[in-house]
Each structure stands twice: as C-alpha cells, then as structure tokens.
Amino acid sequence: MWGETPTPSEPVNVRSLILVCCPYNSPPSNLHGFPNLCVDEGTHTKRSKNIMGYSFRVRHIANTSTAITDETKISLKRDVPNYPKYTLSQETVDYLKQPTFDIWHWEPNEMLSLLEHMYHELGLVEEFNINPIVLKRWLLCVQENYRNNPFHNFRHCFCVSQMMYGMIHLCKLWERMATEDLGILLTAAVCHDLDHPGYNNTYQINARTELAIRYNDISPLENHHCAVAFQILSNPETNIFANVDKDTFKRIRAGITMLILATDMARHAEIMESFKEKLTSGFNDRNKDHLDTLKMVLIKCCDISNEVRPMEVSEPWVDCLLEEYFNQSDREKMEGLPVAPFMDRDKVTKPTAQIGFIKFVLIPMFETVAKVFTQIDEVMVQPLKTAKDRYEEMKSVEEAQKQH
User: Fold this and answer.
1) Quick one: what percent of the chain has pLDDT higher than 70?
2) 308 near 163, Cβ under 8 Å?
C-alpha cells in the first residue's frame, strides 16, 4: 500500500516479516524511516533492541531453511506519508456519534482522520497533553499493525472504536467517569485486536502455537494484542501518553490491559455474572470495582456490536466473519485438529451463525447494560431483536427451499 515490498538479501523460512522504521521529521513534515528487518514467525515479533516504532507488515513466502538475524538490515529508504487532513462537515461530526454510522463508506485515510477527531473532540488530546503529530504517528502505526484478515482487520478496529465513541455520547459517560477513563476506553478499543493472525484462541491452543506456549494457553491472542499495543507506546515517536506522569501511565496501562483481556469471549459468562451481581447489590459509579466491570462490559458490547447497526451495514460483516471462520476450519481439518461446528463451512449458514449468538449472547448483554443506561433499549436492544427476527425468517426461507 505504501510502495513496493522490499526483498530481503537472502530468503528466510518464516511466514511473515515485520519492517520496523524509526521515523524522523523532514520538511515539509513528511515522515521518513529506514526499515529494519524483524522476524515474525506468524505469531510474535522478535524485535532487536535498537528498534522502535512504525511497523510495516510484509508477506514473504519461502521454503528454505536459511536463518536471518534480528540485526539484518534492509538498506531501503521508505516514505511514510502523512494521511491528508480532512475537513469534517458538521453532518459527519454528528453522524460519527451514532450507532447507525456506516463504516463501509470510508477509506483508510478517512478512518484515521475520524479516529483523530474522536481524540480531539472528547478532550483526550488536552487531558493527556498529546502532541498532535504523535497522535497521527500513533494512528498510522496502529493501522499498519492490523493484518489484512477478512474480519479482524483495521476496519474492524475502526468499527469497534466508532461504536465506543457512539456509546460514550449516547450514555453521556463523562457524567459517570473521568476523562482519563474515556481515554482508556477509546484507546483499548483502537488497540484491542492488534496483529490478530486470523485464527482464534482455540486454534492457537490446539495447534500449540508460539503464542499459546508463551501465554500458557491463557487468552493468548488478547495478551498478544496488549503486548503489541504497548510495544508501539514504548516508542517516544508513537507514545500518545508520553507527557503523563508515571502514576497516570500506570493506571492507563492497567486499564487498557484489563479491557483488552476482557474481550476474550471465554470470559463472557464470568464478566457478565460479575456485572449482574453489582447491579443486584446496587451499581455505584464511585466504586472502582463497579466502574471497572462496567468498562469491561462496554468494550465487550462494542467488540461484538455489528448487529446493532442497520442490516446493510451489519450483514457484510457476517460474510467477512464466516470467511475467516472457514479459513480456520479448513486449516484445522488439514492439520487434524478439532473443528467447531459453528466454523465449519459444511455445517453453518449465515442465519444459523447469527440467530443463537444474537439470542443468547447479544440481547441478554445489551439488556443488562440497559438497566444502567435506559436509552440503550431503543437504540440497541430493539435493532438486535429486529436482526434476530430477520435471520429467523431467512432460515425459514432456506429450509423451505431445501424441501422443494
């Protein structure tokens, strides 16, 4: 996307390579970098000690066994263009706050500008004293560290972040929590699937991948997303929290980590049960434990919120998700690993994939959140019920066609 893929001086036996550039400014404020080569064996980057910052994922297929060290350099200068500054109309600014926002209409550079707008509009740039140029660099770096998966890609990142931004406004979260918490919510949404390989935790564990081994089978993907997020933030050039004090950064780091780890659906029942208990005993905004649980539920809602959106926006996401599922199940069959029925192309259809998920996961979760924010019922719960009815009708039509 940003120029031609450089070819390493010798072949390497890895599934992908990461080019990491240390950016510097040059007139007229263009970003340039000299790439360094790091080996990524499909799961995790082995970064050399002197490398920080911009990552360019490069696909490289090789079958030879020649190894390459972290110190290997590619002597190729590469421009990293600034995305253009878009002037957002008032209509777009207002639309961006709505759950009905159509995320398919925007090019990658436009999505970057819309994310940038969110940080300014919510007062996060002021709250964390973020250098606006660093914010741009950070967003570019985040974008480049999302892979081109059918579903878990940068558009999904934007989709989840936009829904979080919409929920902040719909629920007027600034009345219940500090600006720092809003920043944690939005940043966790932006980073929540960084470097997702397109194969879920079940595959990682069953295939005994490097990620599963590193994280002892405990939320390997979510732990990896966190690690990549803070690798990016470890570079002063892309650290949007560089100007906060140590205690504040410690809270931010703990908060973002907590929220990204909460997106593991294996923890769904645990988190929802904890939230329900707090509602039963009386939800208290001033209780940190209560507020943390609410924030975990909010990012969970945003992560799987596609069916809240209008049908023309949500339905293409189902096709993307099924494509990713089928890629995984095909690989699992080839490798002799267990295959989940809901991911098997021979067993699942679009309506069967969605009906149970909407009925038993989405609607109960959003109904529970609606006990704290009543406005969610009309704006989110009702569209979910409409979506369920639509898929049930679709299933009936498919079954009727089979009988003829």
Assistant:
1) 79
2) yes
